[in-house]
Amino acid sequence: MWLKQLHTWHWVSAAVSLAAMLLFSITGITLNHAASISAEPQVTQSSGLLPAAVLAQLPAANDGDAPLPDEVAHEIARIAPLDPAGYAADWSDEAEVYVAMPGPGRDAWVSIDRTSGEVSAEKTERGWISYLNDLHKGRNTGDAWFWFIDVFAVACIVFTVTGLLLLQLHARHRPSTWPLVGLSLAIPLILALFFLH
């Protein structure tokens, strides 16, 4: 009964983590070779002017990190190919509002002059490999991806621990089991202790 349960947990955790493990393995290689993978960032700059009625909706004083009012965000989305709605804004004591909108594989920002209503925006797309690498690192990916990585990590832990227990059960019929398991520990340990600098 216990062995059957162990097999069930092992294959279920393998099935749940399969696609993500493949993604994380591939992006592990692309991250390791990032310097040799060339990509030309695509930069888009935009500028415009907020209408006086929309500009009047901006608070005159520092507003902490409150997001832009909805109508202001909507107008900026019309001016630039960016939607700053919901992003924290940096309301400086000077006459500027700055909104950073980073995401996986991209950086973006909008700056608003609260006096003149002048809007400047820039979006930098770094390509698909950068997008996938940022997913691997959890960089600028939001809460849903944050929790996905945790669930995926737990599934990998279950897969590994149940695999180890299954190895223990079958080790007497496979004499190379424990030397190979020992090697899996020894190789990264030796590399970390003697070859990292």
Written account of the structure:
By secondary structure, the chain is α+β, with helices and mostly antiparallel strands. The protein folds into two domains: about 1-35 and about 130-195, no CATH class; about 40-125, no CATH class. Helices cover about 50% and strands about 15% of the residues. The chain contains six helices and five strands. It has helices at about 1-30, 50-55, 70-80, 130-135, 140-170, 175-195, and strands spanning about 40-50, 90, 95-100, 105-115, 120-125. Strands 1-5-4-3-2 form a five-stranded antiparallel sheet, with no helix packed on it. The radius of gyration is 25 Å and the shape is elongated. The mean pLDDT is about 90.
Radius of gyration, CA atoms, in whole angstroms: 25 Å
Structural class determined from secondary elements: alpha+beta
Shape verdict: elongated
Low-confidence stretches: none
Strand arrangement across the biggest beta sheet: 1-5-4-3-2
Give the count of helical stretches. 6
Care to give the gist of this entry?
The chain is of the alpha+beta class and 197 residues long.
Main features:
single chain, about 200 residues, alpha+beta, 2 domains, five-stranded antiparallel β-sheet, about 50% helix, membrane, PepSY-associated TM helix domain-containing protein
Topology record:
Layout: H1 2-32, E1 42-49, H2 52-55, H3 70-79, E2 89-91, E3 96-100, E4 106-113, E5 118-125, H4 128-137, H5 142-170, H6 177-195
Antiparallel strand pairs: 1-5, 2-3, 3-4, 4-5
Helix pairs in contact: 1-4, 1-5
